[in-house]
Design goal:
Distance between the termini: 52 Å
CATH topology of the largest domain: SH3 type barrels
Strand order of the largest sheet: 1-6-2-3-4-5
Radius of gyration: 22 Å
Largest sheet: 6 strands, antiparallel
Strand content: over 45%
Order of helices and strands: EEEEEEEEEEEEEEEE
Helix content: under 10%
Length: about 190
């Protein structure tokens, strides 16, 4: 058990029988009345952000969450199959638990959040930037735009992104997996 004095960003707690992660908190000591702590909590099961006010000193139950390195193997009707990089144990994960499933490619290293007590997988995070080969795009016509124009392109996973006009078939690009935006062209 912990108290509100132990709050820190990233701490996982059991709030109303749901696993929540503290996104931000603020300790408030008004001139009149008892101190309290305002918090923003992210529900780890559905991703919703809720706000709550705790009285200072109230006891809370902390939950131990571990991040582990996994490797993406393949997708089938059971879900996305991942392998623990240390124990070589395989697990099937539902698509809802993955931050950007359209950018997963075979052999990619991902970080998995695991509830330490019952070994339940809570979420899968891809690396922030990933390099992909462009498998299809229309040729860009030079000189017909005045501003930063983009065109659709397909990458090797089948996802469609927007790229600048100078990107051609077979080029490698770096993509931000959080937003799905083009970042830069990569020389191979």
């Amino acid at each position: 058990m912990a108290t509100t004095a132990d709050f820190r960003n990233g701490l996982c707690i059991n709030f109303n029988n749901k696993l929540c992660k503290i996104i931000e908190f603020q300790h408030v000591k008004p001139g009149k009345g008892p101190a309290f702590v305002r918090t923003k909590l992210r529900n780890l099961e559905n991703g919703k952000v809720i706000t709550n006010t705790f009285t200072a000193g109230v006891k809370i139950e902390t939950v131990r969450i571990e991040t582990r390195d996994y490797q993406f193997l393949y997708k089938d009707d059971m879900g996305y199959n991942l392998m623990n990089s240390e124990t070589y144990e395989q697990s099937a994960v539902a698509e809802e638990l993955i931050s950007a499933p359209q950018f997963l490619k075979d052999g990619m290293q991902v970080e998995v959040m695991v509830h330490a007590e019952n070994e339940e997988i809570l979420g899968v995070e891809l690396p922030q930037y990933v390099e992909f080969e462009i498998t299809y795009t229309e040729p860009g016509v030079k000189g017909n735009t005045a501003t930063n124009a983009t065109k659709p392109a397909k990458i090797e996973t089948g996802a469609e992104i927007r790229v600048p006009l100078f990107i051609n078939l077979g080029d490698f690009v770096k993509i931000d997996t959080r937003t799905g935006d083009y970042n830069e062209r990569v020389k191979k």
